[in-house]
Design a protein that fits this description.
Layout lengths: L1 H11 L2 H19 L5 H12 L4 H26 L8 H40 L1 H10 L3 H17 L5 H15 L2 E2 L6 E2 L13 H21 L25 H16 L4 H16 L11 H25 L5 H12 L8 H4 L1 H16 L1 H16 L3 H20 L4 H17 L5 H24 L4 H6 L2 H28 L1
Antiparallel strand pairs: 1-2
Pfam family, one: TctA
Protein name: Putative tricarboxylic transport membrane protein
InterPro entries: DUF112_TM (IPR002823)
């Protein structure tokens, strides 16, 4: 481990990687601060640029965006009372009243400090889990176990579709079908091409990712802007960090809220928004200033911000270790690594230890670089938020379509992207969650390949006998079934209880 860590440090601590990382942090904070865009859009807009740089620099760009976009959403929550990302909804409940009282700088100081601490603590949790992940990679890596893990990832679709489990499962199935277009990886036969030559190689990842996120988000944002009222942002030039004496009695809240974020981040489907409100309500219960929550209380800002930034390291644990994305942002991280030939899962620690340790270091540095990025974005926020929305959204569409065309050089990818974007927008209007579509598409080829490998190992053995050779696979398939059916059983139970 020390040798691998030193090698990763050598790759990360180069001027070009640090420059790319800071560019990602700055870009993520800016996009996160613009209401209606968020982490997923910021990551997807950066994806085409990662294809023209090395894998470590690409991971630096994505880690920078991922680590800072949630924080950027808190800036607009404090100064505009409109969270830039859903994860920052609780921050505005106390940040905006404090800003209205003339303490915008102090509010953003608390927000920035708590975000950095929560992010760094989540990095520590991620690093401590690395040896455990390495042992898991060495002991378990057969096709049957990997099939079980992938089924767990697919089953998380149900928990990512709270209140819309059936719709979520249908969207996940649609993603699997989308991944099946083109040639069969085992037999080489063509499937679902409908006589269209450009579908012979399947639909590549970029049109799917860009269609689901930036284009669908832009279309939805245009739909929202027709009824949105203009709100003037509160002016602030810089964050004013709290003095050491002001932290007295607040450290326990900071650590507790960060641990809530890490713990809930590990659980697929929970997400940063839920962890933020859990930490917020817990802090209100234990804080001596609980009655001031909602009126501009620093304890509330500490709870909300430390928990939502701590989710980053926690959510990366199942993504890197098991290949199971727990939220849209980590599903996109999974997709982006796949683009670079890096397959997250139980073999990642063995096959690409440099990638793993570089990711740890880059996530730590991205949290530290939030300090200079905060000064830049907060000072520029008034100008950014007043940028004409049609111009901004038009730029996102143009950049996204260029990003689709450049990697493949195929013009046919552009109309495919537009069709997927329009369909994804329609799905959102009718409350169909779009993230399960991406998860099904990303995990589908891996599931198909490992199922074929498992069939070869199985030979003439019966399916039950083959499953009996791997108790771990039985556990994984059982957990996958629990993920799928538990929300449905809960819904049926609550309905029966109400009756």
């Amino acid at each position: 481990m020390p040798e691998q860590l030193m090698a990763a440090l050598g790759m990360v601590l180069s001027p070009d990687v640090i420059l790319v990382l800071f560019a990602g942090v700055l870009f993520g904070a800016i996009v996160g601060a613009i209401p209606g865009l968020g982490t997923a859009v910021a990551i997807v807009v950066c994806l085409p640029f990662t294809l023209k740089i090395g894998p470590i620099a690409a991971i630096a760009l994505l880690m920078g965006v991922y680590g800072s976009s949630i924080y950027g959403g808190s800036i607009s929550a404090v100064l505009l009372n409109t969270p830039g990302t859903p994860q920052s909804a609780a921050t505005g409940m106390d940040g905006y009243p404090m800003a209205k009282a003339g303490k915008a700088g102090q509010a953003l100081g608390w927000v920035t400090a708590a975000s950095i601490f929560g992010g760094l603590l989540s990095c520590a949790a991620l690093i401590l889990s690395a040896p455990l992940l390495a042992d898991l990679s060495l002991k378990y890596g057969g096709p049957l176990e990997i099939c079980g893990l992938i089924c767990m990832g697919l089953a998380c679709i149900s928990s990512l579709s709270e209140g819309n489990q059936i719709k979520g499962i249908l969207m996940g199935f649609a993603g699997l079908m989308l991944a099946a277009i083109g040639d069969d990886p085992v037999s080489g036969e063509m499937r679902f091409t409908f006589g269209l030559d450009f579908l012979a190689g399947g639909i590549s990842l970029m049109p799917v990712v860009v269609g689901i996120y930036p284009l669908a988000e832009v279309f939805y944002r245009i739909h929202e802007l027709r009824t949105a009222a203009h709100v003037e942002a509160i002016r602030c030039s810089k964050p004013i960090f709290p003095k050491l004496r002001e932290w007295k009695g607040r450290i326990s809240n900071l650590v507790r809220s960060s641990m809530i974020g890490i713990g809930l981040g590990i659980l697929p489907g929970v997400g940063a928004t839920a962890s933020t409100f859990v930490a917020y309500t817990t802090a209100k219960k234990f804080s001596k200033n609980g009655d001031n929550f909602g009126k501009g209380e620093p304890d509330a800002l500490i709870a909300a911000e430390s928990s939502n930034n701590a989710i980053t390291g926690g959510a990366l644990i199942p993504t890197l270790a098991l290949g199971i994305p727990g939220e849209p942002a980590t599903a996109l991280m999974l997709a982006s690594m796949t683009l670079h030939g890096i397959i997250p899962g139980v073999r990642l620690m063995v096959d690409n230890p440099d990638v793993v340790y570089s990711s740890f270091i880059l996530l730590i540095l991205s949290n530290i670089l939030l300090i200079p990025a905060a000064y830049i974005v907060i000072r520029a926020f008034g100008h950014v938020i007043n940028f004409p929305p049609p111009v901004l959204l038009g730029l996102i569409v143009v950049c996204s379509l260029i990003g689709v065309y450049i990697p493949s050089g195929l013009f046919s990818d552009i109309p495919v992207t537009l069709v997927i974007g329009v369909l994804a927008f329609g799905m959102r209007l009718y409350n169909f969650p779009v993230t399960p579509l991406l998860i099904g598409y990303v995990l589908g080829p891996q599931l198909e390949f490992n199922m074929s490998q498992a069939a070869i190992y199985k030979g003439d053995m019966s399916l039950l006998a083959y499953l009996g050779t791997s108790p771990l696979a039985i556990v994984l398939f059982s957990v996958a079934g629990l993920f799928i059916f538990a929300p449905m059983m809960k819904s049926l139970y609550l309905t029966a209880r109400r009756r």
